[in-house]
Amino acid sequence: MNDRPPETDAKDDKGSDKAKRVNMSFGARMRAYFLAGILITAPISITLYLAWLIIEVIDSQVTPLIPHRYNPETYLPFSMPGLGVVVLVAILTLIGALTAGFAGRLYQRVIERLLNRMPVIRSIYGAVKQILETVLAQQSNAFRQAVLVEYPRRGLWAIAFVTGRTTGEVQNLTEQEVINIFLPTTPNPTSGFLLFVPRSDLVPLSMTVEEAIKMVISGGIVTPPDHRPPEAQAKPQVSATTYEEVDILREVDGAPVLVGRPVAETREGE
């Protein structure tokens, strides 16, 4: 039984921590400081560098299109980084305002009708327009929720993103209500698989889409905290158990369905 007062234990702990810091070699301390400096400066530096590259690309393409007499750099003794970005934002805003009127909508219909008559261009234009409308629409629910799904087999779980409710032929051919999900790959989340999964097989996650994307890109190194209440964290919702022995039952239309075989029935059959 330890009869020492808590103050003595606290002093001993502080003394041991201080001794550890003293015993650290000069090289170990320098290495720790160097790694801490990388962790602090690397994200900020990479973000600023990528933002500067994007600004330079836009400036190099937009600034030369400005007439010489309207270009502020003509009269100033220094250049203006970001001028092309400002001009591009102003042009896009003006186009959006003009398109909202009757003349703008008429012009848009004429351009779309012209593009839809071109064999290859119409496919590219239709796909790009549909993707942008889905992602940028204010009422869109695309990529608004992260879920868990069993993939590529039972017992293995992967993070996916809900892109919408399945409609059309795919839903009409499926007995259950299915959901469109996008299953990204690591470390490049822009590539992945489109899966149609029954709603009952999806496990909603409390983490945000941004947190889930960070976890996918990092390969699990960056793990977001569990935002659920403690009582919910103590109750598991899914299992990683796999079922190796299955029976294949065929429905009327010939679709295979995998059904687990009871253990007692398996042993009697053997």
Oligomer: single chain
Q: List the uncertain runs.
A: 246-252
CATH domain class of the domain at 146-229: Mainly Beta
Secondary structure: number of strands? 7
The global form is: flat
Distance between the termini: 59 Å
- Work out the strand percent: 5-15%
Radius of gyration: 29 Å
The whole-number mean of residue pLDDT values reads 77
State the secondary-structure class. Answer: alpha+beta
CATH topology of the domain at 146-229: SH3 type barrels
Biggest sheet layout: 5 strands, antiparallel
CATH architecture grouping of the domain at 146-229 = Roll
Helix content: 40-55%
* Strands in their spatial order, largest beta sheet: 4-3-2-1-5
The H/E string reads: HHHHHEEHEEEHHEEH
**Count of helix runs:** 9
Would you kindly provide a written description of the structure presented here, covering whatever features stand out?
This protein is α+β, with helices and mostly antiparallel strands. Among the domains are: 102-136; 146-229, Roll (SH3 type barrels). Helices cover 47% and strands 15% of the residues. The protein is built from 9 helices and 7 strands. The protein has helices at 6-23, 26-62, 83-99, 102-116, 121-136, 169-173, 209-217, 230-233, 263-269, and strands at residues 146-150, 157-165, 178-184, 192-198, 203-204, 246-250, 256-260. Strands 4-3-2-1-5 form a 5-stranded antiparallel β-sheet, with helices on one face. The chain has a two-stranded antiparallel sheet with strand order 6-7. Helix 2 packs across helix 3. The radius of gyration is 29 Å and the shape is flat. The two termini are 59 Å apart. Mean pLDDT is 77; it is low at 246-252.
